[in-house]
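In response to reviewer comment 3 from the previous cycle, which asked for concrete evidence that the modeling workflow produces usable outputs, we include below a single protein chain processed end to end. The sequence was submitted unchanged, and the resulting structure tokens are shown without manual editing.
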Amino acid sequence: MRHVILTTNKLCKTFSNNGSQQHVLKNLDLELYKGDFTVIMGPSGAGKSTLLYALSGMDKPTLGDVYFNGQEISRLSNDKLAVFRRDNCGFVFQQIYLSDNMSILDNIMACGFLVSKNRKAVAERARALLTQMNLDEAIWRKFPTQVSGGEAQRVGIVRALINRPQIVFADEPTGALNSANGGAVLDALTAVNQEGQSVIMVTHDLKSARRGNRILYLRDGVIHGECLLGQYESGNGERQAKLGAFLSEMGW
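The workflow returned the following structure tokens.
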């Protein structure tokens, strides 16, 4: 039986703007599973990032509940939510905010020290993850301004993984990258997922979406459909055709 890691119950998010209300998420009931590479797609303004932030505890819903491994997180205090995110979540955003006055390795280790004070253990894990992401030792000593966008994004993935999170949340991680760098980032996310890491990614990009095993289509704050693709295999034409047919059906 598959393990449900995140659950939403009648999840709603409303924003007020100049006296009017915008209902971005509308009574969402959703189950997300451990070990999945879940992709959230939909048109601009559908509520994709809003859903990601609500699931990760970065933002609180207006109504409804979010449960992580059976524990309600949507009503936690801001301090407890910060601890929850630190201990359970990793984040990869379109823009990677690294400290320019610290080396790549030190940027990652600083994040690791939020959970562990064992400098040797944090350093060993950081080096192992950097190697796994095909970032060699010459890059570890560089500063963020000295690396490419694709390298910086892979550093962001390492930082997201350093504290062994149960879920990595990725919001348009390839949106600012060229094709080659974007492919390297997707390869890195795919590799950690195939080792058992849960990934939830928002994207509008078809190439990125193909990496998921479960595609959710969000429109007007509601899940309109899902497509199950199975584990990613490069060059699988049948997989590509199935996703294309699903998105066409959704009106993408």
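The chain is about 35% helix and 25% strand. We consider this sufficient to address the reviewer's concern, and the full set will be provided in the supplementary archive.
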